[in-house]
Amino acid sequence: MKVEQFEDPYLGVAWGELGARVLSSGNQVAVTLGYPAEGAHGELAEKLGEFLGASVELDLRFQPPPGRGSSRVKHIIAVASGKGGVGKSTTAVNLALALAREGAKVGLLDADIYGPSQGMMLGVPEGRRPEVREEKFFEPIKAHGIQAMSMSFLVDENTPMVWRGPMVSGALQQLLNQSLWDDLDYLMVDMPPGTGDIQLTLSQRVPVSGAVIVTTPQDIALLDARKGIEMFRKVDIPVLGVVENMSAFRCPKCGEISSIFGEGGGSRIAAETGAPLLAELPLDIAIREQADGGQPTVAQDPDGDIGLCYRDAARHMAARLWGLGAAEDESALEISVVDD
After folding, report:
1. How confident is the model at residue 154, as a pLDDT?
2. What span, in angstroms and rounded, lies between the C-alpha atoms of 190 and 265?
3. CA-based nearest residue to 132, from 152, 156, 146, 149
4. pLDDT at residue 200 in the model
5. Which pLDDT belongs to residue 161?
6. What is the spatial distance between Cα 276 and Cα 312, in angstroms, rounded to a whole number?
7. Structural domains in the chain, sorted by start
8. How far apart are CA 81 and CA 62, in angstroms?
9. In this structure, are strands 239-244 and 249-250 parallel, antiparallel, or unpaired?
10. Per DSSP, which regions of 144-280 are E strands?
11. Which residues are registered as beta bridge partners of 29?
C-alpha cells in the first residue's frame, strides 16, 4: 500500500487522485492536504497507520487549492439561509473560527447590512472603528484570531439601515473590495436571509467558491433552504454542504432527547440535493450565550463536544471545496479523440 492510495475520510477519494503532496521515509510521512486539519492529526495518523499496516509519524500540512478570488483572498464562501432565525450568523462565525483553529488564515465579512451582528458575536467593543488607509481602505478588525469587517463597525449599532436595494448592494461591494484583507485562505461571508439583492450581487459580481446552507429540521425552514440551494445552483456556485441547527434538545436534568423542531430534515435535504450534511448541531443554550457574550463556542470551548462538531464541519466543508477543484482539474485534462 502507498500513502497516495489512502482515501480521504471526508471525500472517499485517494489522496493521490486529489493532488495531495506526499513525502515518506520509513515510518515518517509528510502530507500536504488541500484543507486545514490540525484537529484531525491524531485520527488521520491512526487511520493511515492502519491502512499501511504500520505506525507512522505524520507531518500534516495545508496548502489551499487555487482560488477564484483575488491575491488577498483565495476563496470566498457564502453562509446562507432561506429564512431568518435558523442560526446562520452563529454558524458563520463558528465555522470561520473553526477554520482558523484548524490552521487556515480566515476572514469574516458580515454581509447582513440591515442587521449586522458579527461585531457583538466577536466581542468587538461598541464604537470601535477600523483604521482607514489612503482615505478609502479599511483595515479589518482582528478578533479571536480572524479578520473581520461589518457594517456594525462603521455605524452606530442602534442606527437602522433604511436603504434601498442598490445602496445595500453598493455597501456590500465596498466592504468586500475596500477592506485590506491580509492574504486569506478563506473569507466566510455571513449573508442576510433570503434570496434578494445581496445574494444576487454576491453571486453575480463576486468570485464565490462555494456556499453553505444553514437550516433547522422544521418543514418551513427546509422549504426555504431548498430555494437557497437552487438559487446558488442557477448561478453556478457549488453548495459545499448543509448545516442543521437546533436538531435536538437534551434535557439537562434527565438526559432525555427531544426533537422539538422535527427530525432528520437536514439529512433529507442533503440527500435530495446531493450536498453533504456537514453537521447536526443541538439546541443548546450555551451556543446562544457564548455568541451573545462575544465568545463563540469555538473560541470559548474549541475542544468541547459542540466546538469539535463545528471543527469537523469546517474540515468537511473545506475538503469538499478541495475535492471540487480536483475534479475540475481532472476533467480539464481529459482528451477526446474524434474520427472525422
Report:
1. 76
2. 22
3. 149
4. 74
5. 55
6. 13
7. 3-62 (no CATH), 73-314 (3.40.50.300)
8. 29
9. unpaired
10. 146-150, 184-190, 210-215, 239-244, 249-250, 257-258, 277-280
11. 24, 58
Alpha carbons 208 and 187: distance in angstroms, whole number: 10
Please provide residue 57's backbone torsions phi and psi, each rounded to the nearest 5 degrees. -100, 110
Radius of gyration of the chain (CA): 21
The pLDDT score that the predictor gives to residue 64 is 93
Contact between residue 75 and residue 64 where contact means Cβ atoms under 8 Å apart: yes
Contact (Cβ atoms closer than 8 angstroms) between residue 80 and residue 211: yes
Per-residue pLDDT at 233: 87
**What's the CA gap between 312 and 156, in Å, rounded?**
36
What is the longest distance spanned by two Cα atoms in the chain? Answer: 76
Q: Report the relative pairing of strands 141-143 and 146-150 from DSSP bridges.
A: antiparallel
Which residues of the chain are under the pLDDT cut of 70?
69, 155-168, 195-197, 262, 329-340
The reply to whether the predicted model has a pTM over 0.85 is yes
Distance CA 208, CA 206 (A): 6
Three state DSSP letters for the chain: CCHHHCECCCCCCEHHHHCCEEEEECCEEEEEECCCCHHHHHHHHHHHHHHHCCCCEEEEEECCCCCCCCCCEEEEEEEECCCCCCCHHHHHHHHHHHHHHHCCCEEEEECCCCCCCHHHHCCCCCCCCCCEECCCEECCEEECCEEEEEHHHCCCCCCCCCCCHHHHHHHHHHHHHCECCCCEEEEEEECCCCCCHHHHHHHHHCCCCEEEEEECCCHHHHHHHHHHHHHHHHCCCCEEEEEECCCCEECCCCCCEECCCCCCHHHHHHHHHCCCEEEECCCCHHHHHHHHCCCCHHHHCCCCHHHHHHHHHHHHHHHHHHHHHHHHHHHHCCCCCCCC
